[in-house]
């Protein structure tokens, strides 16, 4: 079982006890750590949502409302007070969920960090999609960024859409065929200060700055399997991308 298949299955069910999952965990310390972190997250969410409600809470609220109704029934502020109380309680409950443990804070994430997180989070969907995308569809999605591909891309395109890229806003999200596995491509409306490579335990990527002579600036990000020659793919895409005047 490869790393991507392991992550896809363990994300779907962190408590998977099948033999091949067990073997993958025992054979890799990073897999063991990944499973432990997911199970800890599940436990934290369960504890947060398991809030004990006092048995007499309903009676207490009804009693208090009845006691105050005569004094406030003529005042429209009574309804505002009740609405504010409900909103306050809901805010407290929602605020207890610590989503920072599963989302990279935008202020501290590089384009590479955000791209890796995005690819891994959406892999269960984008790794099976095949929308038979055409060049016309791709350029339609690229139009808001003032860019287009001047000729057909070098491989089959499985998926294209806009996505929310943390810290940047809307970006183009494209998935294409690679030599070893699917390759994910982002075009984001933010220029990188320099071209650079990045990776984690399972994937690697490249960020390439795209700057036009008219002042438009963006970045091309390519993410794929560690065996993939991403530089070739990145250069092919960059050479095909043109800024629309």
Description:
The protein is α+β, with helices and mostly antiparallel strands and 245 residues long. It has eight helices and eight strands. The protein has helices spanning 3-12, 19-27, 29-49, 57-72, 77-95, 111-126, 135-142, 230-240; strands at 147-149, 157-165, 169-176, 183-188, 196-199, 203-211, 217-225, 241-243. The strands form two sheets. A six-stranded antiparallel sheet has the order 2-3-4-7-6-5, with helices on both faces. It has a two-stranded antiparallel sheet with strand order 1-8. Strand 3 and strand 4 form a beta hairpin. The two termini are 48 Å apart.
What's the SSE blueprint?
Elements: H1 3-12, H2 19-27, H3 29-49, H4 57-72, H5 77-95, H6 111-126, H7 135-142, E1 147-149, E2 157-165, E3 169-176, E4 183-188, E5 196-199, E6 203-211, E7 217-225, H8 230-240, E8 241-243
Antiparallel strand pairs: 1-8, 2-3, 3-4, 4-7, 5-6, 6-7
Helix pairs in contact: 1-3, 2-3
**What's the helix-strand series?**
HHHHHHHEEEEEEEHE
Strands side by side in the biggest sheet: 2-3-4-7-6-5
Identify the overall geometry: globular
- Could you give the count of β-strands? 8
Question: What proportion of the residues form beta strands (DSSP E)?
Answer: 15-25%
Class computed from helices, strands and strand pairing: alpha+beta
Contiguous low-pLDDT stretches (5 residues minimum) are 92-108
Radius of gyration: 25 Å
Rounded mean pLDDT is 78
The major beta sheet can be summarized as: 6 strands, antiparallel
Helix count equals 8
Helix content: 40-55%
Distance, first to last CA: 48 Å
């Amino acid at each position: 079982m490869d790393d991507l298949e392991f992550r896809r299955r363990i994300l779907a069910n962190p408590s998977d006890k099948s033999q091949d999952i067990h073997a993958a965990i025992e054979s890799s310390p990073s897999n063991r750590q990944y499973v432990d972190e997911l199970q800890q997250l599940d436990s934290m969410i369960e504890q947060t949502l398991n809030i004990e409600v006092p048995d007499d809470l309903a009676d207490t609220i009804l009693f208090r409302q009845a006691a105050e109704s005569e004094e406030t029934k003529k005042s429209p502020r009574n309804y505002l007070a009740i609405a504010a109380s409900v909103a306050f309680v809901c805010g407290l409950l929602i605020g207890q969920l610590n989503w920072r443990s599963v989302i990279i804070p935008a202020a501290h994430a590089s384009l590479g960090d955000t791209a890796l997180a995005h690819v891994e989070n959406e892999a269960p969907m984008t790794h099976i999609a095949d929308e038979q995308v055409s060049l016309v569809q791709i350029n339609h999605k690229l139009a808001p960024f003032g860019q287009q591909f001047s000729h057909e891309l070098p491989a089959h395109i499985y998926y294209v859409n806009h996505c929310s890229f943390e810290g940047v806003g809307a970006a183009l999200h494209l998935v294409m065929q690679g030599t070893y596995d699917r390759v994910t491509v982002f075009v984001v409306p933010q220029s990188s200060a320099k071209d650079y490579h990045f990776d984690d335990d399972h994937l690697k990527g490249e960020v390439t700055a795209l700057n036009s002579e008219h002042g438009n600036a963006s970045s091309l990000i390519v993410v794929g399997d560690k065996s993939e020659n991403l530089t070739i793919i990145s250069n092919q895409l960059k050479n095909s991308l043109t800024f629309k005047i």
